[in-house]
Amino acid sequence: MSATENRPQPQPYAIAGGVSMRDLLASCAAAEAVSTPPRLPDPGTGGAAVDQDRPKAA
């Protein structure tokens, strides 16, 4: 036997033992939700709404 036959072959990808794909995806979504800052309000929707179709009161 040669030395290369005794070595275990490397895994093509890491195996996450005991974690379901559903739990893994949920944890990724939760991490993204808490690490993303809140969105800024849209410039057109902020402040008091002004209705320009109505005439001004006298």
Overview of the molecule:
The chain contains two helices and no strands. It is mainly α and 58 residues long. The longest helix is centred in the middle third of the chain and has 15 residues, at 21-35. The chain is rod-shaped, with a radius of gyration of 29 Å. The chain starts with a helix and ends in a 23-residue tail after the last helix. The model has no long low-confidence stretch (mean pLDDT 77).
Outline of this structure?
The protein is built from two helices and no strands. It has 58 residues and is an all-alpha fold.
Q: Average pLDDT value?
A: 77
- Provide a count of the helices: 2
**Quaternary form:** single chain
Would you identify the regions where 5 or more consecutive residues have pLDDT less than 50?
A: none
What is the general shape? Answer: rod-shaped
Strands, helices and their partners?
Blueprint: H1 3-6, H2 21-35
Which descriptors apply to this entry?
rod-shaped, single chain, mainly alpha, 58 residues
